[in-house]
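Ticket #4471: structure output looks truncated?

Reporter: J.K.
Steps to reproduce: submitted the chain below (95 residues) through the standard prediction queue, then opened the result file.
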Amino acid sequence: MMRTSAIIFVLLVLLAAAPGPTCAQSPGETDCKAVTELLEKQNRQLSAELRKVRREIAALGARMDEPGIREVFAGIGYILGLFGAAALVAARRKG
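Returned output as attached by the reporter:
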């Protein structure tokens, strides 16, 4: 969860640092074509960055689904505990 928040934070910082659309305005006239091209360029860059973030989140999710060393040892301990309980019951029946 912490890594996801960090990725989102970095994305927001990148968005805040991105230069806004600027266009050369002549008196009474706006160059809409230049603004449109700039916005399309920024949209393509943002889409590329979002794809990278989505890939990283998917990779993180895949790594989190795999059992770690802690889960492996917990499973071994659980199995040994069950065998220990069974051995205790078997020993009391014989003795």
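Triage note (M.O.): checked the attachment and the full token line is present. Residues 2-67 form one domain.
Status: closed, working as intended.
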